[in-house]
Design goal:
alpha+beta; 3-stranded antiparallel beta sheet; 2 helices; 3 strands; globular
Length: 49
């Protein structure tokens, strides 16, 4: 697994994603589905660690 910063559109804010196989999974959204609060940006992830 690799962490990346991505944008879903050109205008969208940068988000924290995890590359799994060939897909980018939004970390914060995955956490929300699991009932866990996870950071939504790389800077938040660094501060969270």
């Amino acid at each position: 697994m690799r962490l990346v910063t991505y944008r879903s559109t050109v205008e969208a804010a940068a988000r924290l994603g995890a590359v799994i196989d060939d897909l980018v999974v939004d970390v914060a959204e995955a956490g929300q589905h699991a009932g866990v609060r996870l950071p939504s940006s790389m800077l938040d992830f660094i501060a969270y660690s």
